[in-house]
Amino acid sequence: MILDDIIKMTQLRIREPEERGGETASTKPEGCNFVCSGQHAVIAEIKFSSPSAGRIRERTDPGQIAVAYRKGGCAAISVLTEPAYFGGGRPEDIAAVKNAVPPLPVLRKDFIIDLRQIAETRFLGADAVLLIAGLLGERLGGEFVSAAYAAELEPLVEVHTSAEVALALASDAEMIGINNRDLCTMQLQPETTAALAQPIRDAGRIVVSMSGIGGGTGGYPAARPPVCRCLPCRDSLMSAEDPPQTVLEEFVCA
Question: For the chain, is the Cβ count within 10 Å smaller at the N or the C terminus?
Answer without folding.
Answer: N
